[in-house]
Amino acid sequence: MSNAESAAAILAEGILAGRPRAVARGISLVENDRPEASALLRLIFPRTGRANVVGLTGAPGAGKSSLTDKLAQVYVDRRQRVGIVAVDPSSPFSGGAILGDRIRMPKLATHPNVFIRSMATRGNLGGLARATTEAVLLLDAAGYDVVIVETVGVGQDEVDIVKTADVTVVVVVPGMGDDIQSIKAGIMEIGDVFVINKADRDGVERTQMELEALLELAARPDGWQPPIVRTIATATPPVGLEELAAAVASYFDFAERHPAMRAQRRRRVLGRRLLELIRDRIMQQVWERELRDGQLEAALERIESRELDPYTVADYIVQKALR
Amino acid sequence: MSNAESAAAILAEGILAGRPRAVARGISLVENDRPEASALLRLIFPRTGRANVVGLTGAPGAGKSSLTDKLAQVYVDRRQRVGIVAVDPSSPFSGGAILGDRIRMPKLATHPNVFIRSMATRGNLGGLARATTEAVLLLDAAGYDVVIVETVGVGQDEVDIVKTADVTVVVVVPGMGDDIQSIKAGIMEIGDVFVINKADRDGVERTQMELEALLELAARPDGWQPPIVRTIATATPPVGLEELAAAVASYFDFAERHPAMRAQRRRRVLGRRLLELIRDRIMQQVWERELRDGQLEAALERIESRELDPYTVADYIVQKALR
After folding, report:
1. Interface ipTM
2. Based on the domain organization, do A282 and A253 belong to the same domain?
């Protein structure tokens, strides 16, 4: 057994026993794409597939983190263990500031049945989606009943992330003017439950009407009719959170009654994940065999001088690498 | 010669002759990743590398499209041919609405020396960055002197796109409160020129001071000191556009005086592009040989039942595919 493997084995034991510190350490490994991560995921994978994964997304300023925290509280009150993965996009313009403002409920953050973790983009193509999926697997293996993945709904990466959840909650707020208009086909497809948060604001009726009209236009192939729930997450006590949990549960019930549909959804996510794994591993090998030690630089020089073109070079390397 | 190759040859001729309709058709081919695209790019590649590519990015609402149009007008007035590639992210929340509002200058859109094209995300990983780079190559080959790539600065994809430009212009606006604070390391590195647009608004002095302070903190390894230009793109006549063009030109002068640095920058972009090409081609082949015809489904079934894990399956397929 290699060092990485024995380190992974010890860590896997801790995760499968549900120890938060082991989970935190495991997430750091997948986040940094460390060699032990692969061995760890292999070990815990057989014990995954039990958690209910809730994706929660919406425009900046929609109150996603408050809503996530209050929804988590509902589950905690029902004596469930809840993992929260807050995806912090590296957007140089908006990301930092918005998520910097987040104030997590102190009560929740220290609750023994709650695990909260922020994930940040590392800048490499698709790296965040991979790390988030793997963090969810670790929480699943650690016995968290519900895992909430919260992400801002801007950018392809973030939409990809939320697609991997078992149920997707889309959060809107009243009075954002054109915003409902911009909730186009893409988001209507991924939303299984819609929330109008900050529902004490003006314009809530109009937002509800527009949302209903859009949902009517976009009939889903699986026959599910996404419910619309109104919430005020920051009220004391928060309004509409039990209803939101019920709406999420009703989707899980629906999915349970349509096992073929659910299997298809899970398979799509798994398939995508598998292709990414294959891609990353192949590129790692190709890099080491065909491009390291100045070979890439030599090719680039000849491309720069227009002696060769990138398309011919790529074809040559692909032919050389594959059987 | 295959059909795709002869179609590509005819199109390449039109593009190299600078015909806008041929360019438009070429961009459609790369956008839809059609088989002819590869042959076309191979043919035009030797004639690329002459255009000055200007990347322009900033937060939603910073006035990027007005600024792009007015900057293009400056170049047009100097009898240069200008290509504009406006990247329209598929963000389900903000993208559509914001870019839907754009009003392109009608004068510019019909000018014989101007080519404007919007690119939209297709949803596949990295597809937009690839298509945008290729569209720029086509405009370059068609003899456009300046190509402006305009993209909203949210999400990794968009940042990746702007990194491929020869010079990157970052647009901010006064009075966005915390926004300057959130212009963190990432964006300070990619900005070669900074613009404070809507400079008639309150808070312009504060924004300028904050920007200067941040720039001082983030000294660049190449020694370039990014200038800050104030503009009012929507004024009649627009304010600060000549100054912006001068700032962009001063960066090009600087790059010219540091050819090793410029070569390094271009090589980084080319290298990234080559790796993407190799990756996409390898995955295409692996898909056809190892995953098609139900093989992926069979693997997924065994993963779903937890009989196998994705990591073992990925390793197996990689071993089988590579020499």
Report:
1. 0.80
2. no
